Every structure is written in structure tokens, then in C-alpha cells.
Amino acid sequence: MFKLVLLLTFSAAMIASCTGKKEAENEALWKSKGDSLISRTFDTLRNTLLKAIGEKGLTGAIAFCNTEAGKLTHTYATEEVTIRRSSDKTRNPANIPDSLEQKILSVFYQQIKDKKEVTPVFEKDAAGNRHYFKPILLQSICLNCHGDRVTQIKPDVWQAIQQKYPADSAFNYKEGDLRGIWHVVFKKEK
Ligand code: HEC
Fold this sequence. Notes:
Elements: H1 2-73, E1 81-86, H2 99-113, E2 121-124, E3 130-137, H3 143-146, H4 155-164, E4 178-186
Antiparallel strand pairs: 1-4, 2-3, 3-4
The structure holds heme C.
Heme C binds near residues 53, 66, 92, 136 and 146.
């Protein structure tokens, strides 16, 4: 009897550690898929934005972002994998955070407050969908449209922003600030 109990305990522990390991491996796989999707999407957005600024100037680029940013963000999305950007201070109301995104934004802000590195978050929800979040940090080029409203955003650019986005609150950022988050969803396999 004692031997049997020992055997059972041992097997249970083995199974637990194996599934634990498998889950960790899976998580690493999902994260690397997420990283690749985010970096391809970011490159596409940034390169297209830079091209638009070069061709049409900053003011023209606002109108361009207005019609194209949403579509471009979905360039590599599929039925099973979605990607979007969100922020606690949005320009486009379509990017206002949902409750899960709000939670992650608070986690990131807490890490910043604690002077820790902002680290990506991976979560599985009750329905079995997997979520991957990464911070979006503000770079110097972004200041033209998200920086100090008086000293960094030029009057004609500010006017164009106000015209397209009357509810805008995505300004007065500094370089290195948390501008928002990437949110990738891997939908539960059917
Ligand atoms: C030419 C002006 C311009 C520049 C430069 C710019 N943005 Fe934006 N940004 C916008 C506009 C316009 C939107 C709204 C796009 C839309 O309608 O979806 C936006 C939206 C966003 C959003 C989505 C959340 C929201 O507020 O709606 C994030 C995140 C963001 N920008 C980050 C950045 C970062 C990071 C950079 C620098 C790498 C940057 N932006 C550079 C104009 C700009």
C-alpha cells in the first residue's frame, strides 16, 4: 500500500511538472509569435508614417493616419490573430482601452513607478483566448504629434489634429514615456 501511494504521488508530480514545462514552452512560443507580429506591424506603421511625412508634411500625415492607421495596424492580422493599439490617453476613440487593457496599463504604470523594467504580459482568459501585451514607448520622432502641445506640436499640426480628432488627449508626452500598449489576441482554436 505504501509503495502504491508513493508511486501515485511520484506519477502525479511527474505529470504536473511535465504539463508545467509544456505550458511554459507553449507560452514562449506564443510570445515569440506575438513579438514577430508586433515588430512587423510597428515597422509597417513607422515606415508608412515616415513616407507620408516626407511626401505630405506633418499636417498631411495627420489626414493620412486618420484613414490609414487602423487598416495598417491590421496588415498581418488573420481570423485567428488580432492586433491593436490602446492607451490611457487616446487620439482615436476607437483605441480606448477595454477592462483587460486598462488592467495591463496599470501594471505597466506601476512598474514604471517602481523603477522596474516594463515587461510584456501574457495571459489566457476564461474563454481560452491568449492575450499578449507589450509597451509602446515614445520616441523623439513621435514628439511632433504627441509631444508638448505648445513647444513641440506646430500650430498647423495641432489644428489638423483638432479637426480630425476633437476628443484627442494623446499629447504632452515626453521621450521615453509609456505612450500605450500593443494587444495581440490569439483566439482559442476551434
Ligand atoms: C504625423 C503625426 C504623428 C506622428 C509623428 C506619430 N503619431 Fe501616433 N498618432 C497620430 C494620429 C493621427 C493617431 C490616430 C490614428 C488613428 O486614427 O487610428 C495616432 C495614434 C497613435 C496611437 C494609438 C492610440 C491613440 O492615441 O489613438 C499610438 C499608440 C501612437 N499613435 C503612438 C505613436 C508613436 C510611438 C509614435 C512615434 C514612433 C507616433 N505615434 C508618431 C499621429 C502621429
